[in-house]
## 1
Amino acid sequence: MAATGTTASGESAFYVTTPIYYVNDAPHLGHAYTTVAGDVLTRWHRQRGEKVWYLTGTDEHGQKIMRTAEANGVSPQEWCDKLVEDAWKPLWEHLQIANDDFIRTTEPRHTDRVQEFVQDLYDKGEIYKGGYEGPYCVGCEEYKSPGDLLEGDLCPIHKRPVEWLKEENYFFRLSAYGPRLLEFYEQNPDFVQPASARNEVVQFVKQGLQDLSISRSTFDWGVPIPWDPKHVIYVWIDALLNYATAVGYGSDQAKFDATWPANVHLVGKDILRFHAIIWPAMLMANGLPLPGRVFANGWLMVGGEKMSKSNLTGISPRDLTSHFGVDAYRYYFLRAIPFGQDGSFSWEDFSARYTSELANDFGNLASRVAAMIGKYFDGTLPEAADAGPAEKAIADGLAAAAAQADTMIGDNLDFAGGIGAVFDFVKQVNGYLSDQAPWKVAKDDSPEGQARLATILYTAAESLRAIAVLLHPIMPSTSAKLWASLGAEPHLGALADQRIADVATWGRLPAGAQVVKGEILFPRLENA
Ligand code: MSP
């Protein structure tokens, strides 16, 4: 079973979040990377039979959005509405993201609760008024410490000059939380993952925390501070609270109890400190249970730099899905880059994996098996009459692959490892077919020869039944095509209802299933 939130109750949902994305621009591959990972993780847990809640959304306040709207001659709200409806939501639909909710930080269900949360901290004496002056990066929406800057005034992430800000602000007593945070990390060694991220966070907190400025008074695109509306709440405080407001914090206690806290917050490594330091400290101050895990994924890189729209390196996911298809897209990034590490996107590598792993290893296996069952048995799956050691080895291989994939994907977020385990099994089945050579056995029309042929093709089809289930969270449409081609649904029910726990039970696809050669799963790529 997955690690649950340290204080999560047994019945609460497996709750996963993505970062909420800034809507100053359209989504690129880097944003889609995290959202697809969360989708695979949550689909996997749904197939475990768990109650799941998957949240994504958009971060719409702050200076960055305000300036973008101004530059485009529209109000910030108009800008956000347009980007959300025309760019962000349609992309998630296109990529088959099965999120349960989509929160926008300009919605009243969010802004009202943000005010209540901040008021509560104020009433508890956790917030005070003070002054601050320092270098600020609008791209990060964050004050930087002078030591972090490159060449004196460049943000280390955006590589652009910071601005000097001087403000009278409200401050959250973050510095007081250092010892409690360190104790929490100590008691919950898996709270921050991977280990490199954990080390970074622990080191940072050990150096001592400063109080955090949580309001701005030089612009007004944000949630007003309830007791002093000349100030708006700092966009990061506003944004982090989406994880609570979206699941009923302060409005729907039953839903909140059934969902909170998040089991996994997926974040990019650049926003790790917000999630692993500021966020738990805010929750401690308010008295809410803390999340189970913050997992920091790496960056997709272009030419050695983080891919980003502002550097004009942001590639649109649709530029790839139009060529490779949505399922191959979902597969590629998770298979090619170990989750937690940086990785470079390359068209050549994607094409190579598409052809060898998806089209040749997997797609051909599915079409060959269906074609042979059509040719030799008129499309009716035969009984496995004389299963022997070679078939046992396949059943054992499946059991191992299923167990590994379940732990790796479902518990460890090791998507590359888990998908690799399933594809090792695909290779094993291909090897079995080459060894058994059913096309040769078919020439022997003695009863023994026909029984052997039946066993080989049953074994291959039953393996494909399991492969369809194991790959469903990663490639939902392809798996559905395979499920249909195996004639599985009338016997076993809908693909989405198949449980990971049953996947390795051998012999589920019954003889008599009507196998048809469906459409090609991974068509040959057009020359780009
Ligand atoms: N709005 C904040 C998050 C608030 S969460 C309470 C924000 N938004 S963002 O749009 O700038 O970035 C959102 C996520 O996209 C971050 O996790 C960031 O790491 C990720 N990515 C942006 N570019 C990326 C790559 N090139 N590669 C991988 N992920 C990257 O930060």
## 2
Amino acid sequence: MIADIVVDLQYGDCGKGKIAHVLCKEEKYTHVIRYNGGCNAGHTIYHNGEKFITHHIPCGVFFGIKSIIGPGCVVHPDSFFKEIEDLESRGIQAKELVKVAANAHLITDFHRIQDSEESDIGTTRRGNGPAYRDKYARKGVRAIDDPRFSNYIVNMYEEIYENEDFQQKEIKILFEGAQGFGLDIDWGDYPFVTSSHCTVGSAILNGVPPKFIRNTWGVAKIYETYVGAKNFEGPDEIFESIRELGEEYGSTTGRPRQINWLDFDLLKMAARINGINNLVINKVDILEKLKSWCLYSGPTLYEFNNKEDMEFWIKSKLLLEVDEDIQVFFSGDKEFI
Ligand code: IMP
Ligand code: MG
């Protein structure tokens, strides 16, 4: 068995969907597994020139790969079935390919109401926090308990270790994460966080131990965005232009994302804690259009003359301070599609 992981190193919306989609195109995965979060996520994917936004469903469906919503996730049934129907109506075989782990927990309509009433940290109001709260309070409802899921249920242990279609050694999994390091329940800026684990640890909790992990793909952006109630955006007027050019509006809620320069120290910490061996830094083309190249390290704002200087600085610091074997890729927004 081999597993690769895609993990976001900032506040979500860094292009995990794109990277997962590229990896599925290149590698013969037998399974793609979403390992955390619920329909608070919004993954923008371009497939055969068409734009898709997925919330629950992993991107294996675009390539005929079995796509599982893992036990670390929470699922809102109506949104899930709507997503299935939307994909089917656009020719994607979601009904056949998508499975839900028996022990994934459900987001109920009541969770959504609670989330809307309590949303003081600016949640997506998708019921995520209340669903995880009930899960950990041992009052939750699991997918296997809801008859509507009967055709979709999968037992993760049997699927991975006792699969009749594959010998265990033939199994090749891509773990697709949601949200990001800055939103992680433990490592993020609490309480301005989501209610799940957003690091590689979370992928492993879904049933695949560390010895099978091959590549960990960290995904970041050359600048930062955040959606939620805390003040995040810097005072610089350029952030307005970045928002427009980068189309930085939430793909789930449509809210404008707050913008700031890259926080190198956060990136470094996320790279270390996730143990990445590949890093994609997206949306370099957006700063290129504006000819502005800045980042923070601690309180110091570094300004670079050009793209090459900024990329060189980031890459050399990461290789020196985190791991000299990390492969670093800089990418434009729609590159690799
Ligand atoms: P919740 O996950 O809906 O509880 O929201 C908690 C925080 O995480 C809020 O600041 C949300 O805006 C943020 N958040 C949740 N999911 C995403 C995502 O997929 N992308 C970006 N921000 C997210
Ligand atoms: Mg998103």
